[in-house]
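Let us practice reading a record.
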Amino acid sequence: MKGKISKIKVVELFAGVGGFRLGLESYNSSNIDVKVVWSNQWEPSTKRQHASEVYEARFGRQNHSNEDIAKVSISDIPEHDVLVGGFPCQDYSVATTLKNSKGLQGKKGVLWWEIYRILNESKNKPKYLFLENVDRLLKSPSKQRGRDFAIMLKSLGELGYAVEWRVINAADYGMPQRRRRVFILAYLKGTKIFENLKTADAEDWILKDGILAKSFPVSFEKDHHKFQLKDDVKTISDSFNLEGKLSPFNISGLYVNDAVYTVKTKAQYEGKRIKLKDILVADSDVSDAFYISEEELDKWSYLKGAKKEIRETKDGFKYNYAEGAMIFPDALDNASRTIITGEGGKSASRFKHVIKTKKGYRRLTPVELERLNMFPDNHTQLNGVTDTKRAFFMGNALVVGVVEKVGEVLFNTIAEDKSV
C-alpha cells in the first residue's frame, strides 16, 4: 500500500561493535523504518567489556544487554521481525535429546544453541533470520565434513524455517577487503518469502530470484547437488558424513522441507572496485609507532618470506618445515587481504598487513582497518581502548557493505509482504 510505513524491528545478537546495526539501520526509506530494538554483546574471556562499551558509546545504552546470552530470559527480549548475529564457529554437535518432541540440547557454551533457544521458546518467532559466520562452517568438523551446518539447517527446519545461504567474498563486489563469510537467511513458514521459496525452482532462486541473488548477482559455475536431511538432529549429529572427505555443502544453497539444493556459483560484478590504496590515511596523520625500523625490517621479511628448514620441538624432535612466501609489502592496487584478530601490535608477524609509503614501511592504523570493513572512521575509538584492541575488533567484524546490500533487498521484500 503506497504511503504505508513498514516498521521493521531487529534484534542483534553477538553484536561486537555493531557491524550488523550499522549496515541495517543505514537503510531507511520514505516507507521503511528499520530499528534495532534490543542488542546483546558479552565477551566471556575478558573482565572489561570493551566491545560492549564501544557499542554503547555509538548507539546508546538503552535496550542493550551486556550479559551472558545464556543467562538472558526470553521475556527480556522484545518481539521483533528480524534476528541477526555473527555467532562464533564452534562444534555444534548434540549432547542429548530432550523428552519433548521439539527440544534438543547442544554442547554447553555453544552459542548456536542460544539462538535455537530463543527461537524455540519465543511465543512469536522472528519471521526472518540474518546470520553470518566464517565459511568453514560449511565443512566442519574435519571428521564429519558439513555436519555442523546440517545440524543448523535441520534444527531451523524443525522450527519452521526455510533457509538460503551464500559464501560472499566482499572484494568480489568491489569492496576493499578480501573477506569470505557465509551469510545465512531464514524465512518462517507463513511469510511470503517462505511460500515463494517452497514452490520456486531451486536453481532460479539461487541465480536470480532469491534475496541473496538480488543483492549479489551470481552465475552457475559447477557442482549442482541435491540431497535430503530426513534424519532427526541427534542422528545427524552422530552419523552425518562419517565417511565423506568433502562437505556436501557448496558456497550457495537452499534448504526447505528437508530438501537441500547446493551449487558452486561465481560472482558477477562489473562496477567500481575499492583498492587498498584508496582507504589509506595521509602519511602526515600516521604516528611514528606504526612505522617499522630498519632493524626490525629483516624480521618482518623473514616471517613473510618462503621457508624450507629443519625445526626442533622443545622435546628435541626435529622436523622439516616449509611454507610459501607472502606478498611483502602488501599490494596497494588490489583489495586488501583479510584482517585477522591479531592485526594489532608492533611485533613482527607473517599475517599482519604492511605497506610501503614514501616515509617507509608501516602497519595499518585503526582507522584504515575500520575502512577495510566499511565502518565509519574512529568508530572503535574510546578512552581506554588500545589500538591493538581496536584491531582485534576489526578482525572479528564483518564488512558492513555486505550487510547493507542484503538488508536493502530483504527489507523491501518484507515491506511488500507486510502491505498485503
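A brief commentary: The chain has two domains: 6-271+399-418, 276-385.
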